[in-house]
Design brief:
The chain has about 200 residues and is mainly α. Helix content is about 75%, strand content about 0%. The radius of gyration is 18 Å and the shape is globular. The protein starts with a helix and ends in a 10-residue tail after the last helix.
Length: about 200
Amino acid sequence: MTLLNNFLFIALPYISLSVFLIGTIYRYRSRKFTYSSLSSQFLETRKLYWGSLPFHWGITLLFFGHLVAFLFPQTILLWNQQPVRLLILEITAFVFGIMTFAGLLNLFYRRIKELRIRKVTSLMDIILEVLLIAQVFLGIWVAYSYRWGSSWFAIVLSPYLSSIFNLSPKIDAVIMLPLIVQFHLIGGFLIIMFIPFTRLVHFL
């Protein structure tokens, strides 16, 4: 089990970050035009609006929410000392999670259902979209089952992620987390690793 934990929470993050960095640079230098998502937007329909808008707003706000908790854990903990502010933060994040999930399902249905979109969709696009759906679902599950996530994220996950970037991984606290939280963390690493090979690279 120790070997598996070392792979999932030490080796996998470094593999993911390395593949992401090398893959995005190589794709930009060799196939720069593929950084855009214009080929899909050309085929835009009214249905895209109800998938694209909630997904892009939701995922952007969730991303920056996670980023702020990672970069400024003490600020988050100070903010959360007031129960009302903590409640506002938790409810807001949960709503964004639902919004992202609904948008993703709509986009995935459109991608599978419409022949024109399916023709410009690669296998890696499908894999990443399924991973994203699972990841957001897990995030909603974690938020619902293990309340006050912004606080324990700042206490447990921020130090762990910092230790990864400091090249001195400390996984003692992470391996004690519930399995569903560990799956959510692993899913994040896998998504980072697959991004250079998919249409999602256009966010860069």
